[in-house]
What does this fold into?
Amino acid sequence: MTWRRKGASSPTAAYAGSSPVWRRILTVPLVPEAVRQARHDTTMALSEYGLRPDSAFAGAVLLVVSELVANAVRHAADQSPTADVTIAVGAGQLVVGVADQAPRLPVLSPAGVGDGLRTVAGLAAAYGGTLSVEPAVHGCGKVVLARFRVPDNLSSRRSGAGSRAF
It folds into this structure.
């Protein structure tokens, strides 16, 4: 599986105001092996971005990717053959999105959320972020989004390279 860049061919693919947004999208088949593959490929993408895979922040992001892809495999595979995993970084935020074609939106209330989404919400909150779900833009399916505020000590740029060092 390979990551697709969204927009331009450089790692700085899109712009939100004056802040560049770095984005990668991976399409995975909704089979149990997708969790391992998405986690591996996300590790590589985060390394490409400049995030150390052994950092606590990267560990939280990787666990979120694992949980969200596992949920898609568990709850959407009968209606969606694939899911798109998106990693986007910009304006001091990192966003993980997992989109599938199943129309049922997960319940995010404290009483209705399962252990996996509770873990995702807790990890996002630990980094000043949120968990949300939205209908897909194209009208078929949904996207589950986990937003993180990138810790200040991780958001400095590498000198001369134009990429971020974490």
